[in-house]
Amino acid sequence: MKFVLAAALACAAIPAHAEQAADAQSAEAERWRTAMQSARWTGPLLASNANTLPQGHVYTEPYFFDGISGGDHHPGSSGFYQYGLRDNWTVGMQPFFSLGMKRYNREVAIGDFKLLSQVRVSNFTPDHRVPSVALVTNLVLPTGKFDRLGAVKNGHGSGTFAPEIGVNVQQYFLVGDRLLRGRINVLHQFPLRTDVRDRSVYGTSQGFRGHARPGAKSTLILGAEYSLTKEWVLAFDVEADAWGRTRVRGRDALGATVRETSPKSWNVGFAPAVEYNWSDRAGAIFGVWVVPKGHNTQSSITPAIAVQRFF
Fold first, then answer.
1. Lowest-pLDDT range, 120-124, 127-131, 187-191?
2. How many whole angstroms separate alpha carbon 155 and alpha carbon 96?
3. What pLDDT does residue 15 have?
4. Which of 256, 219, 257, 215 is nearest to 241 (CA)?
5. Which of these, 70, 67, 80, 111, lies nearest to 288 by C-alpha position?
6. What are phi and psi of 14, to 5 degrees?
7. CA distance 100 to 72
8. Which CATH code of 2.40.160.40, 3.40.50.720, 3.40.50.300, 3.20.20.140 fits the domain covering 38-310?
9. For a designed S-S bond to 285, which of 42, 99, 200, 241 qualifies (C-beta 3.0 to 4.6 A apart)?
């Protein structure tokens, strides 16, 4: 009789314990849900989102910037224009334009465009708080002028197709009742060989005939955003870039052999920024990307502003 009573009590206790655990889990999920509803985001200056757009929706985020290096200004525009092909698959385009400031280069020029594709493999929700992870496959298109340049004209492209692969990760953290959002981007770009004629961005002169292969580029970006209020967000990025050797082969105007190889290079920069999001579908960010002098690279300061819209 004692054994039967003890077994009955044990069986009765299990559902009660399970119910308490379920209530606690539900309360924690509701806490996360409330925090996420009280935060709006534009995204930091550099780190990309690991989430994808809902099917049929559009996202636009044009950037306007001024790259300042060696006392020269290089204003331009870039940005993201994306479409939700499926709930877990977003495609898009990242254009690039630059504005010449010198008298002999005072014009709007097209740079290399990038085709974007991102497939999400996991998704953060208040109930399942795993990091959002997406696989990235991009392609740089050689739309910018890079060779056959005039005597004083600047080039704005590489002349080569450049496949890019990578992984984007995003995770949320609760700090009190406010959210901290973290991002990690790991990207590797490997440009293909391109034919080069005359004066070019690769340092060749008039009469040159040959080809160039830019060095591979590896990028690591760490980004964080803290939601001060529903509208205001503080953002900060750290980006490390490394370039391999660029090789140029061919013959100059006199028929002499040209074999040049540039050294490897790298730098590390950081970008503090402030976001203001006036609705769940629109916001803006202003910040400055500061890159100290690196290994075989110049220092630069790039103030930038972007406005995002979700349709």
1. 127-131
2. 13
3. 61
4. 219
5. 67
6. -60, -50
7. 10
8. 2.40.160.40
9. 42
CA-based nearest residue to 113, from 139, 146, 84, 137? 139
Where exactly are the structural domains of the chain?
38-310
Q: Is the pTM for the entire model greater than 0.90?
A: no
* Residue 46, both tokens: 């550099």
Instruction: Reply yes or no on whether the pLDDT at 308 is more than 80.
Output: yes
Per the structure block, which two tokens stand in for 150?
């005039």
Q: Which residue in this structure is represented by tokens 């981007």?
A: 185
Q: Are 185 and 221 in contact (CB under 8 A)?
A: yes
Cα 27–Cα 50–Cα 274 angle in degrees, nearest 5? 85
Task: Read off the pLDDT band of 8 (50, 70, 90).
Answer: very low
Phi, psi of 70 (to 5 degrees): 60, 25
Q: 166 pairs with which residues across the strands?
A: 136, 187
Q: Using an 8 Å Cβ cutoff, are 78 and 112 in contact? A: no
